[in-house]
Amino acid sequence: MSNSTRSMPAVFVGHGSPMNALETTRYSEAWRRFGKSIPKPKAILAISAHWYTEGTGVTAMEQPRTIHDFYGFPQPLFDMQYLAAGDPALAKRVRELLRPVDVRLDNTWGIDHGTWSVLVHMFPDADVPIVQLSIDATKPAKFHYDLGGNLSALREEGVLILGSGDNVHNLQLMRRTADAPAFEWADRFNREVIAHIESGTHAPLIQYESFGEPARLSIPTPEHYLPMLYVLGLQRKDDPLSILVDGIELGSIGMLSFAIGALRA
Questions:
Q1: Which residue intervals of the chain are DSSP H helices?
Q2: Is residue 110 part of a domain?
Q3: CATH code where residue 78 lies
């Protein structure tokens, strides 16, 4: 496959609230448009903020369960099932590509809401097999960026790589009204992130602590930020960038979504 015609894009999605699975918003509409703008993937490898572990694991079951890893939401959200197949062969391929990192084949996790709340819009028929890769909480940001780059061959093999998190994610300071404006520090950090993504300067995004107070407040814990680094690690020099949607909800939840690689016109 040539990069210009057949290489699968990779995408980072700011998934925000699980309610985005049920609601039609400008974010869910952007995810739906993205799903329609690419060839149907052979499979999906998802890196979700909500599988944060010691060590690295990859789901290897034939039929992953739908995980409802949240509380306090309406019953219809708990009733949702995203019954996509797994892909044990892809799990083994991921393990091979990431050597010498010891990647365990996992048969206990499944598809968490960081993945399925997005995919119900991108691929509503649940007809693309899914594998999830966990995020090793013991490793620094550069490790995750490099791990993303090591997965690059999957793009030529028809696999869509999805990172799902939020580039700004501070639940403790979240404002509880739907029309709440962004905190100044959240807006400033979001703009810095976008500027570096657009210019292709990834080093400052790996060393995000250098942004000082806006970074400290925007990323009090790194699990929602790190999926973005996997996707940036996949970017090649000739890959176009597409900002799919942007915004900050509830004052402190970044909804930036972007794709690398060519989309269909």
A1: 26-37, 75-79, 88-97, 113-122, 141-150, 153-156, 184-199, 203-206, 213-218, 226-233
A2: yes
A3: 3.40.830.10
Q: Supply the DSSP symbol for 145.
A: H
At residue 1, the pLDDT reads 37
pLDDT tens by residue, 131-183: 999 999 999 999 999 999 999 999 999 999 999 999 999 999 999 887 899 99
Number of domains comprising the chain:
1
Q: Where does the pLDDT of residue 2 fall: very low under 50, low under 70, confident under 90, or very high at 90 and above? A: very low
Q: Is residue 92 part of a domain?
A: yes
Rounded to whole angstroms, the Cα distance separating 52 from 55 reads 9
Give dist(CA 210, CA 157) in Å, integer. Answer: 36
Work out the number of other CB atoms within 10 angstroms of the CB of residue 30.
20
Distance CA 92, CA 90 (A): 5
Is residue 1 in a domain? no
5 lies in some domain: no
Within 10 Å of residue 179's Cβ, how many Cβ atoms? Answer: 7
Give, in degrees to the nearest 5, the angle at Cα 245 between 50 and 151: 50
Contact 93, 154 (CB under 8 A): yes
Range of the domain at 214: 10-260
Do strands 10-14 and 257-260 pair parallel, antiparallel, or not at all (unpaired)?
Answer: antiparallel
Q: For residue 231, what pLDDT band results from cuts at 50, 70 and 90?
A: very high
